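Annex B, item 7. Sequence and structure tokens for protein A, then protein B.
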Amino acid sequence: MKWSTTVREWQREHEKPNECIYCGSKGDLTIEHILPRSCGGPDIPDNAIQVCKKCNSVKVGNDSTNGLK
């Protein structure tokens, strides 16, 4: 069975709440949409993950399923 990137992100967030799911940082967290709103993603909790501002800024222009640059 192969899990999608969004399932893995959801699992990481629930295993380690209040941490960036990419780097593990516990500070300066922000919300990122898994499927960006600009691509039609809904503004609902199931489409949101916590990431630090540094990781979120690296991903500008990418959707979460592509990973970090």
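Protein B:
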Amino acid sequence: MLGCHPGDCHYTEGNYKCQRRLPLTRKLAEQMGVDPRRIRLEWVSASEGARFTQVVTDFTEQVRALGPAAARGLGVRQDLREASSRR
């Protein structure tokens, strides 16, 4: 998730709400078997094109290193294998 720097957004509260909700979002993701490292919050303004590019590139590399996402204990990978074998 990317948001304006705190105190520098015309939506005034959206980035603060996001920051407060992030711990719960990570906890819920983890309970569903999603690695919480797949959720990240960064402050980037519209005038920071180079920073935006770097943040997105770094996060893409991080997620790629984590490998494919699969919900633990929910049989997601098995469901995908079964669906693939039916094709």
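Comment on protein B: The first strand starts at residue 2 and ends at 3.
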